[in-house]
Amino acid sequence: MRDLGRRTKYEIYLDVLETVRRKGTCPITRISYGAGIPVDRTKKVVRLLVSRGLLREENVGDKRLYRITTRGGEFLEALRTVRKFIQ
């Protein structure tokens, strides 16, 4: 379990990607709750991850949902590996 101090941007990326992987597809609010960050910050992080090809945006009706890409899954595994070495 993490301490309650500030998270690095990579820990936030890890939390966002894990949330999306766990849920399959999810809207921005679900990602925000799962990662424990405000919606406005979540939007910025998600935009970055989409621009890097780690998340994919899907429009279903009037909803905008996000899904992890293969590359995003690989990045998530790499972040988990790095976290093991740091701890």
Overview of this protein structure:
This protein is α+β, with helices and mostly antiparallel strands and 87 residues long. The chain has one domain (9-80): Arc Repressor Mutant, subunit A. It has four helices and three strands; from the N terminus they run αβααββα. It has helices at residues 9-23, 28-35, 39-51, 70-86; strands at residues 25-26, 55-60, 63-68. It has a three-stranded antiparallel beta sheet. Helix 1 packs across helix 4. It is globular, with a radius of gyration of 13 Å. It starts with 8 loop residues before the first helix and ends with a helix.
Topology (SSEs and partners):
Layout: H1 9-23, E1 25-26, H2 28-35, H3 39-51, E2 55-60, E3 63-68, H4 70-86
Antiparallel strand pairs: 1-3, 2-3
Helix pairs in contact: 1-2, 1-4, 2-3
TL;DR?
With 87 residues, the chain is of the alpha+beta class.
- Domain count: 1
- The beta-strand count equals 3
N-C termini distance = 10 Å
Our estimate of the beta-strand percent is 15-25%
Radius of gyration: 13 Å
Q: Characterize the biggest β-sheet.
A: 3 strands, antiparallel
The level of helicity is: 55-70%
Annotation field: number of helices? 4
